[in-house]
Design a protein that fits this description.
The chain has 17 helices and 22 strands. It is α+β, with helices and mostly antiparallel strands and about 625 residues long. The chain has four domains: about 190 residues, 2-Layer Sandwich (Heat Shock Protein 90); about 120 residues, Ribosomal Protein S5, domain 2 (2-Layer Sandwich); about 130 residues, MutL, C-terminal domain, dimerisation subdomain (formyl-coa transferase, domain 3, 2-Layer Sandwich); about 90 residues, 2-Layer Sandwich (Ribosomal Protein S8, Chain: A, domain 1), CATH 3.30.1370.
């Protein structure tokens, strides 16, 4: 009996839909790109329930004939290519003829379209790949396509859709990409009868500002490079506008949005040491190349492009950005006094020469009284705690600590090469805590087995994270009213994120009132809040969640971490002896003292034998 057979057309379309139509945002992307290819100058996107119930795209493009309306929903029906060689010179968006067929296989679709030379338009309906009817209709020139109940016939797929707010944010990302690619086209977007974007046709700079807000306008630097291989236009942002999350990094090639990790690396490397280690530069870069030198058909969603001369383009991108940064005098500063440099060592206040080491002790001060420490000696309270910490972790994970030691030897050698100096250690080193003068970043604490090196900012992040995480669970955070409420202006995407975060922020002590679609007022902050402004923390929280991920997923942990990172001391902030001891004590009372919540090392321990091997 034969076992090989052809799949029914509807099943084949649903399989294709699995590649092309992953969520409502995929539908919006395909339909908008079709409108652009149709020569539209005005495109409106109308949503209901974040695209879950309705996605409607209306354009004033050239429209289709009755026959075209039927053919458009057949697999591999296209007006863009006619032979295989055309695949290597594609200058349009859709060309494989799978999008509409895939959408119609998992939704109910109504298409209305009219050409300029026709008196009447055509209304064509199809559901689950089954045509429902075709009839003439009165309408304006262009196309109006309405997609209802996405995945209605595949419940297993539909249940995996995220919350409406999350799907809406994904749609906004796709909408923004096409709107940035074509600033000469007017775009509108609304959800549940509320207009979110109204973008008139404009020059590129105005289009960027209309999407990302007025604050970005003064941060934009134009870039232009013309070569026979690659032409580059657009804008990069000054380093201070960098962010810790993706969201303002855009590449476009011949009018098509794309992702390109290698070119992103070229951009970030061009900024060199101008950015913090975990920050990403913002850029809007438009490439023009010969279509025959790229391949846009290497991914179902067509967001990846293969370049024939990738290495040469890499160099051109990097060189062009460096030139712009130099033109605007944005370069790493050179301080010949070396103060603040990684290798800078704060001069000792002592006179040169030999002197006896000593310990500064205030016997009348007990910094741990608030922890119920009674009359304990300050240093004697710390050292046993470190010894216990060391012993317990040695017993629990000897192999892990040994690996940690191996990795630290290189760091120690590097520190020695940079002439990192540590204050003199007294004979009774079990009762001494010392501070390295390298950026004031580390606390060096002595112990009977050796020394512990603590990254003080990482330690403070761990302490604050535990505090904020507990506060979110208990909802017992005290709050204080702000005498002069702060107003924060956001773009649409940021405003949607903050709206979702408002209940969690209230639990943390931040009360924000929404004054308009994009304007919020901060009216209260946590009782122990010492920052001058709450806006930087709110912005970092928004940045943390600006990923399209559902906010409810691990939101308490992420909010607590973002809060801790925002309010923790900087690596260069000086601490007094008492403040350092207090920080160490708080750290050792945390459940996970050795790592930050995001997995960064806080404490490194060198035992005496390892110290001897390093010297």
């Amino acid at each position: 009996m034969d076992i090989v057979h052809l799949l029914p057309e509807s099943v084949a379309n649903q399989i294709a839909a699995g590649e092309v139509v992953q969520r409502p945002a995929s539908v919006v992307k395909e339909l908008i790109e079709n409108s652009v290819d149709a020569g539209a100058t005005k495109i409106s996107v109308i949503l209901k329930d974040g695209g879950r119930s309705v996605i409607q795209v209306i354009d004033n493009g050239k429209g289709m004939s009755p026959k075209d309306c039927e053919m458009a929903f057949m697999r591999h029906a296209t007006s863009k290519i006619s032979q295989a060689t055309d695949l290597f010179s594609i200058a349009t968006f859709g060309f494989r003829g799978e999008a509409l067929a895939s959408i119609a296989s998992v939704a109910q679709v109504e298409l209305r379209s009219r050409r300029e030379e026709s008196e009447l338009g055509t209304k064509y309906t199809i559901a689950a790949s089954e045509p429902q009817g075709c009839e003439p209709v009165t309408m304006a020139v262009g196309t109006n396509i309405r997609v209802r109940d996405l995945f209605y016939n595949i419940p297993a797929r539909r249940k995996f859709l995220k919350a409406d707010s999350t799907e809406l944010r994904n749609i906004i990302q796709e909408f923004i990409r096409v709107a940035l690619a074509h600033p000469d086209i007017e775009f509108r977007l609304s959800n549940n009868e509320k207009e979110l974007y109204n973008l008139p046709a404009a020059i590129l700079r105005k289009r960027i500002v209309s999407i990302f807000g007025k604050n970005i306008e003064s941060k934009l630097m134009p870039i232009k490079c013309e070569t026979g291989l690659l032409s580059i236009n657009g804008y990069i942002c000054i380093p201070s506008h960098s962010k810790r999350s993706h969201g303002e990094q855009f590449f476009f090639t011949n009018g098509r949005y794309m992702r390109h990790p290698a070119f992103h690396k070229a951009v970030t490397e061009a900024y060199g040491g101008l950015l913090p280690g975990d920050a990403l530069p913002s850029y809007f870069l438009y490439f023009t190349v010969n279509p025959e030198t790229i391949d846009v058909n290497i991914h179902p969603t067509k967001t990846e492009i293969k370049f024939q001369h990738e290495s040469d383009c890499f160099v051109l991108i990097q060189t062009s950005i460096k030139e712009v940064l130099g033109k605007y005098n944005i370069t790493a500063s050179l301080d010949f006094d070396r103060e603040g440099d990684v290798g800078y060592i704060e001069p000792s206040p002592e006179k040169a020469g030999n002197y006896a080491p000593g310990i500064r002790v205030n016997s009348s001060y007990n910094p741990f009284s608030k922890y119920g420490g009674g009359g304990r000696s300050t240093n004697s309270a710390i050292t046993p705690a470190f010894n216990d910490f060391y012993d317990s972790h040695r017993k629990e994970s000897v192999e892990g600590w040994e690996q940690l030691f191996e990795g630290l030897k290189d760091s120690a050698n590097e520190a020695r090469e940079q002439q990192l100096e540590i204050e003199p250690i007294a004979e009774n080193n079990e009762q001494t805590i010392l501070w390295a003068k390298n950026h004031d970043r580390y606390i060096i604490a002595s112990m009977k087995q050796g020394v512990a090196i603590i990254d003080k900012r990482a330690a403070h992040i761990r302490v604050l994270y535990d505090k904020y995480r507990m506060a979110l669970d208990s909802r017992l955070v005290g709050k204080q009213s702000v005498m002069f409420p702060e107003t924060i202006e956001l773009n649409i995407e940021e405003a949607l994120i903050l709206t979702e975060l408002l209940p969690q922020l209230a639990n943390m002590g931040f009360n924000c009132t929404q004054l308009s679609d994009t304007t919020f007022q901060i009216e209260s902050v946590p009782a122990d809040f010492s920052e001058k402004s709450a806006i930087p923390i709110i912005m970092q929280l928004i940045e943390t969640f600006n990923t399209g991920e559902k906010i409810a997923e691990r939101n308490k942990e992420r909010i607590a971490l973002a809060m801790a990172q925002s309010t923790a001391i900087k690596a260069s902030d000086p601490l007094s002896d008492i403040e350092s001891e207090s920080l160490i004590y708080d750290l050792l009372n945390c459940d996970q003292s050795h790592l930050t919540p995001d997995g960064k090392r806080i404490i490194t321990i060198l035992n005496n034998s390892e110290l001897q091997n390093l010297l």
